[in-house]
Amino acid sequence: MADRAFNSTRSEKLFDIFNYFFLTVVLIVTLYPFLNVLAISLNDSTDTVRGGIYLWPRAFTLENYQTIFNYTGLVQGLKISLLRTIVGTVLGLIAASMLAFTLSRVDFRGRKFISTFVALTMYFSGGIVPVYILMRDLNLIGTFWVYILPGLVSGFNVFIIRSFIDGLPYALQESAKLDGANDFTIYYRIILPLCKPVLATIALFLAVGQWNSWFDTYLYNGTKQQWTTLQYELMKVLQSTQQGGNMVNANDLATQMAHVSPDSIKMAITIVVTVPILLVYPFLQRYFVGGMTLGAVKA
């Protein structure tokens, strides 16, 4: 018996050692790309051309970030990106959750037709030209709402939230109705509080999508400096490093670009656009895990 207990203890220790080693390798593989990007962004551009930058900068400098933040359009782009991320996430959550709640109601007669219609939007699109014409006819081009309204309702988000609501006991809604609650009260006071995990997951998807978007700015507001976004401005800065500063209209930006390399600017831009999302993720992590495991276990 003593030998069995000893062997069992030794096996557990070997398993723990292997487990720690495996997780350490996974941690290194996961963190290395980000640390490498950070090191290159903090390294002197001339020295970066030599290569060999891995986990820490060889010639530390903040010149790459100074070049980016000296661009005059960056502050305005940051304001609009923050505004569209907040407004787009909040309104997107409200629209998707209300539609999902409606489609989850078994007493709603048009649920099958509308569900089919929403599902079709996930597979078929009119293309860039018809969408542009639609935005023009709706007078959305040159406005802030061209960032919000076209993607306000996503079929994928609606079905994810609906699946979560379908897993809730329908008796909660029935008991609320017996107490005199209307549909909006049920949605606001019962459904939304119970849907925090899936709503946090969808909120992260929406926020990342709005924050990283730049192509809609290029299509609809490329000439409207008051509605420019951070990603679009950083894209122009990156293009200026690759094309000699001809595409960015700033005071002395072209002169500064002569002292930096496209790779260094590219890495600095990657850090600038990634850090805000990394700061938001820890606050949503516990809900995000619960939302992502939705449907993994079936009764």
3D architecture notes:
Helices cover 69% and strands 0% of the residues. It has helices spanning 2-41, 45-48, 63-69, 74-104, 111-120, 128-137, 155-166, 171-178, 183-194, 196-212, 215-220, 230-242, 253-257, 262-292.
Task: Describe this structure in a few short sentences.
The protein is an all-alpha fold and 299 residues long. It is built from 14 helices and no strands.
Structural topology:
Layout: H1 2-41, H2 45-48, H3 63-69, H4 74-104, H5 111-120, H6 128-137, H7 155-166, H8 171-178, H9 183-194, H10 196-212, H11 215-220, H12 230-242, H13 253-257, H14 262-292
* Average pLDDT, all residues: 82
Main beta sheet: none
Helix content: 55-70%
Q: Report how far apart the termini are.
A: 41 Å
Measured by DSSP, the beta-strand proportion falls in under 5%
Question: Which structural class is indicated by helix and strand composition?
Answer: mainly alpha
Discrete helix count: 14
Q: What is the strand tally? A: 0
Radius of gyration, in Å, reads 25 Å
- Element-by-element helix/strand order: HHHHHHHHHHHHHH
Note the main attributes of this structure.
0% strand, mainly alpha, 14 helices, flat, single chain, 299 residues, disordered C terminus
